Fold this protein.
Amino acid sequence: MESYCTVLSDRVKNVLDAHMTASDIIEDTKKFVYDMLDPTSERGDMLYRYEHSIRAAENAKVIARAENLPEEPLILACLLHDVGYRECDDDWRRHPFVSADIARVYLQNINYDPDMTAEMVRGIARHNLTDGIPEDMTTFQISIRDCDDIDRFDIIRTAMVMGGTVFEKTNSEIIESCEEAISNAKWLMNLPRGTKTAEILLKNNLNKRIDLLNEIIAQARKGF
Ligand SMILES: [Fe+2]
Ligand SMILES: [Fe+2]
């Protein structure tokens, strides 16, 4: 099975040791992810990351049921897709690989199906790919990334992004930053998706974002 050569810290090893069995696999995996992200008071961003992982897993349930994909593995993969985030403070771009390595050890420890584990681990390692999707990337693997993206562009994230886009800016600055955000959203809308259901869910979120940005642009134009 593929390894991405992460050197696991003592903290990670301790959390892994404390989660060697899973009786209710989905609930126990949520606890594992929570302990691994460890949202202490000075790291509220890790609580956001945990809640994001739960929402990605909810998207997984919807997509798996609609598209006849293996439901439990897709939910688990989405719960685990950012599990290494706290270990990547130096460079967040490493997090798909660190998360994949931590997920691999966890799934092996709880004796999860080895073939499914390999597929989940590979999908987690690839969940940040945008263009240039490898030809051997399966629908299951792409769906992990889709579940992540659907949450990354939901209305909560739209509100977060919107703050920086408009806060204390002049009308012309607002128009410029909103136009940039629209072209970003349109680029994302055209990336390939694993399933029709993911495409619909993501388009729905992105269209809401684009509509809001267009309304803001219209109001800023009135200011001239
Ligand atoms: Fe991620
Ligand atoms: Fe994510």
